[in-house]
Amino acid sequence: MRRMKLRLYQVDAFTDRLFSGNPAGVVLSDGWLPDRLMQAIAAENNLSETAFVVPEGQGFGLRWFTPVTEVDLCGHATLASAHVLFNHEGRSSDRIDFLSPRSGTLTAMRQGEAIVLDFPADRLREQPAPPGLARALGRRPLETWRGRTDLLCLFGTQSDIAGLRPDMGLLAKVRARGVMVTAKGDQTDIVSRFFGPRVGVPEDPVTGSAHTTLAVFWAPREAGPDPQKEIIAQLAIRPPGSA
Questions:
Q1: Are 12 and 21 in contact (CB under 8 A)?
Q2: How far apart are CA 71 and CA 195, in angstroms?
Q3: CA angle centred on 137, ends 131 and 141, rounded to 5°
Q4: Is the peptide bond before 239 cis (omega within 30 degrees of 0)?
Q5: 125-235 belongs to which CATH class?
């Protein structure tokens, strides 16, 4: 096996302060590593996700691993990857196209000091709460919706979801990559939490990919007739993170 130089970064995403937001690993290499090696690196990093980035054409290939498995999409590790390329790897263009084998093309654009991500919108359908969900969460949601990979559970207030203490063992048995709980916020438009024990992430501090689902769910309820209305979302746990 030929030797390959790797560059490893750890980035706190969705924050401007140290030791807050959501930390992600970013591994850059000239070509894809074997799957088993990427999984081993992610397990040793022991972060909610580690992103692996390789040059592909004018853009970059991108894959994400939790400590126990590969996942279809990860927002904060994509943001972390864009930050590394823009600020530490000499990327001069203000646009990066990431090519994901599971999620298609994801675009990151530099706008001043900010990075804006363009992700595909989820598709949602309402359904009855699956068996064991209410018991695992410790409270029955008002509504339950299923996206491509995750469940969305609506609760009445921010206090409702801030007070949840899920049984992670039971929640891992629910058939979904993750379970997000959401409600209207006290200080922001909406709040949420994201649990992913099935993929080795009991609770993710700030989950970018969940907002591809949350935006679809909340936009018609919050934006009304104005499709350009900005909706402010915040995680209902500490450390705080906004998306």
A1: yes
A2: 14
A3: 75
A4: yes
A5: alpha beta
- For the entire predicted model, the pTM comes to 0.87
44 tagged catalytic: no
Q: Per CATH, which fold does 7-118 belong to?
A: Diaminopimelate Epimerase; Chain A, domain 1 (3.10.310)
Q: Where are the beta strands (DSSP E) in 76-118?
A: 95-100, 104-111, 114-118
Main-chain phi, psi angles of 63, to 5 degrees: -135, 155
**How does pLDDT run across 161-214, given as a tens digit for each residue?**
999 999 999 999 999 999 999 999 999 999 999 999 999 999 998 889 999 999
- Give all strands (DSSP E) within the chain, no chain letters: 7-13, 22-28, 50-56, 59-65, 70-71, 95-100, 104-111, 114-118, 125-126, 143-146, 150-154, 178-184, 190-196, 201-204, 233-235
